[in-house]
Design goal:
five-stranded mixed sheet
């Protein structure tokens, strides 16, 4: 482009000089007069050409310098104008508009980390922010204190070990002892993603301790009820000077009966600890519901509503549904059972709700305790098994009594 302009200017100057020479020849001037005229004309023509070239070059250089300053973040820089030109004026307006938009974008980009720092820097929760390209723009003090994750601003989430799926952010190192959540936010027309994590290790330990205390309490109660009569019967035999064979048979028969009951108790207790790790897959929950209907009586009803595709271990969740339906059928005494199964997805969490028209939970505080039961022939395994399966799916179990009677069991676990 520069070469073409130079050639055009030189050509223009030469054309003017040639035309002046032709005019001199036409007026029959002498050679000396023509040369003198061309010499004096060449200076202003060259000066004008140089001024045109200088104006073009200086304008381009000013524009280039101004754009470079904008790219370097110098928002206070302005474009110096030289002379009046419609094209240059239009270009200046466009660049100033671009600069203002860039300044707004830069300000909003800088303000978001500052705002997050003012809000979350000292709270005891891990806060990590990514921009709309999932590049790390902020992490609070608690986040940098984590041993499980290395953080470096300006790096992509995947380079830091995070996984991104449908705008949801996860990290494989933050699993059992962490409660994680990700959400999208928008600040001054800037999109970002917020990742939060709470260390629930102490809560898990407290929960495990409470479960252990309940198990010890139930075991102590069952062992005491079994061993105390056995010890009493043994004392009775030992206190007899002459043993009656019939009496000994009777005592030993009772001891054996109590021992068999204790062994059965221990076997039932071991069943809760034998649950395998889930094998995750997506499956049709309606198929599992249809299989469960074989447990129903002639006039019982099992109604299903909601979404069909479920994510989890189909075998374990089938056993869960069987246990819940059995409990519901046992809770309905002298009337036809009506059991409703509802399944839906909300905020990346799966909800499975089972309700019945029975009498509800008579002792809801201890209903999930292994081997605890208020039923005459119950084993106290059903809900303990259900809670163990849901826990292995990183979920939770909630028990409620309906306002109009009946029990409500809700299972919640992640959909990923």
């Amino acid at each position: 482009m520069e070469f073409k302009i130079k050639v055009a200017l030189v050509f223009t100057v030469l054309m003017f000089l040639v035309m002046a020479g032709i005019i001199g020849v036409a007026f029959e001037w002498s050679l000396l007069a023509i040369c003198t005229m061309l010499f004096f004309l060449s200076y202003p023509l060259c000066w004008v050409a140089w001024r045109v070239w200088d104006f073009w070059c200086s304008s381009i250089m000013r524009v280039s310098t101004y754009v470079q300053s904008v790219n370097m973040g110098e928002s206070s820089t302005s474009l110096a104008r030289r002379g009046s030109s419609v094209l240059i004026d239009d270009l200046v307006r466009e660049i100033e508009l671009l600069q203002s938009k860039s300044a707004i974008g830069s300000t909003s980009t800088q303000l978001l980390p500052i705002l997050l720092s003012q809000l979350f820097e000292d709270i005891p929760i891990v806060i990590i922010a990514f921009d709309d390209n999932f590049t790390l723009i902020y992490a609070n003090r608690e986040a940098y204190a984590m041993r499980e994750v290395s953080l470096l601003q300006g790096m992509h989430a995947q380079q830091l070990g995070f996984t991104v799926s449908k705008d949801q952010i996860h990290h494989p190192a933050l699993t059992r002892s962490w409660r994680c959540q990700s959400s999208a936010l928008n600040y001054m027309q800037q999109s970002a993603y917020l990742f939060t994590a709470i260390n629930i290790d102490s809560e898990l330990k407290q929960s495990e301790q409470a479960v252990q205390n309940n198990i010890v309490r139930v075991l102590s109660h069952e062992l005491r009820n079994t061993l105390t009569p056995m010890s009493s019967m043994a004392d009775t035999l030992l206190s007899m000077s002459n043993w009656d064979l019939e009496q000994v048979r009777k005592v030993l028969s009772r001891v054996k009966s109590r021992s068999d009951g204790l062994l059965s108790f221990v076997e039932r207790f071991a069943e809760v600890a034998k649950i395998p790790e889930p094998q995750y897959e997506r499956f049709d929950l309606t198929t599992v519901v249809e299989q469960t209907k074989t447990l129903l009586g002639e006039k019982d009803q099992l109604r299903f509503s909601g979404q069909h595709t479920c994510y989890g271990d189909p075998q374990l969740l089938a056993h869960v549904l069987i246990n819940l339906v059995k409990n519901a059928l046992e809770a309905v005494e002298e009337k036809d059972a009506i059991i409703d199964v509802q399944f839906y997805l909300s905020d990346s969490q799966q909800h499975l709700i089972v309700t019945d028209n029975g009498s509800g939970f008579s002792n809801i505080e201890n209903a999930k305790t292994p081997l605890f039961t208020t039923k005459e022939h119950g084993a106290g395994i059903g809900l303990a098994f259900v809670e163990s399966v849901v826990s292995k799916h990183d979920g939770k179990l909630a028990l409620l009594n309906g306002a109009n009677g009946g029990a409500k069991v809700e299972l919640v676990w992640p959909s990923h």
